[in-house]
Sequence to fold (101 residues):
Amino acid sequence: MHNPFYNDILTAEYIATVVLLIFFGANIFDEPDNIFMSMGMLSLLVLSVAVMAYLFFYQPLILMMENKHAEAARFFLTTLGVFAGLVLAFLGVGIMISLVM
Fold:
């Protein structure tokens, strides 16, 4: 069985990768305003939603189908809670960095 903490680590890694690609990719392309960049960004949104849905809902759904409702709820809520903590940590670090600069 998967560990909700493992899912949260994968989620944070995925988000960091996407943000780094966007952040540093903006420096590579001189003219990002074209139809293909817009299609690419919308496609990235769809991909991100699919990846997050898998990481957050797949294992709880399997547990629900096995009639392990309490375990499914605990798995989902643990995943969600740890991810909320990661979001707060990211925001806290971002706020601290912006105050220093």
Summary: Residues 4-100 form one domain.
